[in-house]
């Protein structure tokens, strides 16, 4: 089965074609990041309008890259939510209309399920069951994953998501938006021990997180610093260490609680190399294994939606002719 996947939940227009036998056939991504950077955050109305401009050309591009036509598509998957409602509606309308015109089934996919299954796009795929850490700009959650659609929430952030904390800390030091990856890069030149930030909720016997206090600690350190490049690097280093240690400790707790040996890390922050290294070390100590999506599929993309949608369509799921998009949608 060949499935066209469409992602438009935020500021990335992603399209991909996934084949249940042959894997990913082609994909294309257009990022609106440069447009929103000017405003210091995503402007929802501009995001929707840009998805309108880019989506159909990207679909054409993906079909051309795969050397296929619309007749070769057996189903369409799109991100139904959660996300910006206007942006979601663009993907939903295009997906549902094309499915109607091409006479194929359509299925709405949960954006976070897309992230959760993105490691299946790697050569080394995890078997079920596993614990999954979802760390993106909007979510920080730990799940026990027993199979497709069987996700039990073990814990989550009570305030800011990890990516959001990265972005806010980067922004206050003038590193632009979204600055998570830039901050991680700056941390490489940081000296250990110059600053020490709190590890919020690390000793609480649960799998919940809190990152808003950490951002405040970084702000106070920044205000007291000489605001040099070295100060940025030192603060970035201490900040990243605190986030990574907190995430690793909570993953350890989730693995212990569930008895699982496999850990999947997905979402934009799973691109963080320090987090990858520390989780690998922790899993090796426990004789387990950490699985990551290919770097390219850590952040928002159409491939993860095509994959997740393909699994659901193969199970016979599909939606009626209505167009459905949900800004909020618990998984
Ligand atoms: O999954 P994603 O693309 O979008 C959401 O669904 O939120 O994640 C984006 C988030 C942003 O907060 C971004 O700063 C963060 O992932 N991010 C990183 C890195 N690369 C992206 N955070 C830390 N280190 C990175 N290398
Ligand atoms: Zn995402």
Automatic annotation (TrEMBL):
Residues covered by the Gcp-like domain: 24-307
GO molecular function: iron ion binding; tRNA N(6)-L-threonylcarbamoyladenine synthase activity
Gene3D superfamilies in the record: 3.30.420.40
Binding site for substrate: 134-138, 167, 180, 272
Keyword NAD: no
Subcellular location as annotated: Cytoplasm
Cofactor note: Binds 1 Fe(2+) ion per subunit.
Keywords: Acyltransferase, Cytoplasm, Iron, Metal-binding, Transferase, tRNA processing
Single biological process term from Gene Ontology: tRNA threonylcarbamoyladenosine modification
EC numbers: 2.3.1.234
CDD domains documented for this protein: ASKHA_NBD_TsaD_bac
Residues that coordinate or bind Fe cation: 111, 115, 300
Xref: NCBIfam families: gcp_kae1, T6A_TsaD_YgjD
Name listed for the protein in its UniProt record: tRNA N6-adenosine threonylcarbamoyltransferase
Organism of derivation: Permianibacter aggregans
């Amino acid at each position: 089965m060949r499935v066209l996947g469409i992602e438009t939940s935020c500021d990335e227009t992603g399209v991909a074609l996934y084949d249940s036998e042959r894997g990913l056939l082609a994909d294309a991504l257009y990022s609106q990041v440069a447009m929103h950077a000017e405003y210091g955050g995503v402007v929802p109305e501009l995001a929707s309008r840009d998805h309108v401009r880019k989506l159909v050309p990207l679909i054409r591009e993906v079909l051309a890259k795969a050397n296929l036509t619309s007749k070769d598509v057996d189903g369409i998957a799109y991100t139904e939510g959660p996300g910006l409602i206007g942006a979601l509606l663009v993907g939903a309308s295009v997906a549902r209309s094309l499915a109607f015109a091409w006479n194929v089934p359509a299925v709405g996919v949960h954006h976070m399920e897309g992230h959760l299954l993105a490691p299946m796009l790697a050569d080394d795929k995890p078997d079920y069951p596993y614990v999954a850490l979802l760390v993106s700009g909007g979510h920080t959650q730990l799940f026990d994953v027993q199979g497709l659609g069987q996700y039990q929430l073990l814990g989550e952030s009570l305030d800011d998501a990890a990516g959001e904390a990265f972005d806010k800390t980067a922004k206050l030091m003038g590193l632009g938006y979204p600055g998570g990856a830039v901050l991680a890069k700056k941390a490489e030149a940081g000296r250990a021990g110059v600053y020490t930030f709190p590890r919020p909720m690390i000793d609480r016997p649960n799998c919940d997180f809190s990152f808003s206090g950490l951002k405040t600690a970084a702000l106070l350190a920044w205000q007291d610093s000489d605001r040099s490049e070295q100060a940025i690097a030192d603060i970035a280093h201490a900040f990243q260490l605190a986030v990574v240690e907190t995430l690793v400790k909570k993953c350890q707790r989730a693995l212990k609680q569930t008895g699982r040996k496999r850990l999947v890390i997905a979402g934009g922050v799973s691109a963080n190399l320090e987090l990858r290294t520390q989780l690998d070390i922790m899993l090796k100590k426990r004789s387990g294994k950490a699985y990551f999506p290919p770097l390219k599929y850590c952040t928002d993309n159409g491939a993860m939606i095509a994959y997740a949608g393909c699994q659901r369509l193969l199970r016979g799921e599909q939606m009626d002719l209505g167009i459905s998009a949900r800004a909020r949608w618990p998984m």
